[in-house]
Amino acid sequence: QVQLVESGGGLVQAGGSLRLSCAASRRPFITSAMGWFRQAPGKEREFVAAVSWDGTRTSYVDSVKGRFTISRDNAKNMVYLQMNSLKPEDTAVYYCAAGPFAVDPTKYVYWGQGTQVTVSS
């Protein structure tokens, strides 16, 4: 079973940057697409970005295009989410997940515990 652990969240002012990391505990990570999702209080979990198993394909929700970049390092079993030009509406708990390359969270098999990102105005 794959275990995922997110880190890198925190409090940042609007316009600032954060880099989220997700460490996978098992080798199967290398054959899985990885996704980042977020959930704000009172809202449903929302797709943010995904990267294919080999890093050649990426997908982003429109609201983060041009600001966020997803990447992965298969040698280190790591996936990253670089977030620039952060806005207060980016405030949420961010989760990484492993599964097929998809935007539907129900398609993903493994989930991390989440890391809080708070953007102040």
Provide a concise account of the structure shown.
Helices cover 0% and strands 49% of the residues.
Which tags fit this structure?
121 residues, mainly beta
Report what the structure shows.
- This protein is mostly beta strands and 121 residues long.
- The protein is 0% helix and 49% strand.
- The chain is built from no helices and eleven strands.
- A hairpin with a 6-residue loop joins strand 4 (33-39) and strand 5.
- It starts with a strand and ends with a strand.
Structural class: mainly beta
Please tell me what the overall shape is. globular
The Cα radius of gyration reads: 13 Å
Poorly predicted regions are: none
Average pLDDT for all residues = 95
Give the N-terminus to C-terminus distance in angstroms. 40 Å
Biggest sheet descriptor? 7 strands, mixed
Give the helix tally.
0
- The fraction of residues in strands falls at over 45%
What layout of secondary structure does this protein have?
Elements: E1 4-7, E2 10-13, E3 18-24, E4 33-39, E5 46-51, E6 58-60, E7 68-73, E8 78-83, E9 92-99, E10 110-111, E11 115-120
Parallel strand pairs: 2-11
Antiparallel strand pairs: 1-3, 3-8, 4-5, 4-9, 5-6, 7-8, 9-10, 9-11
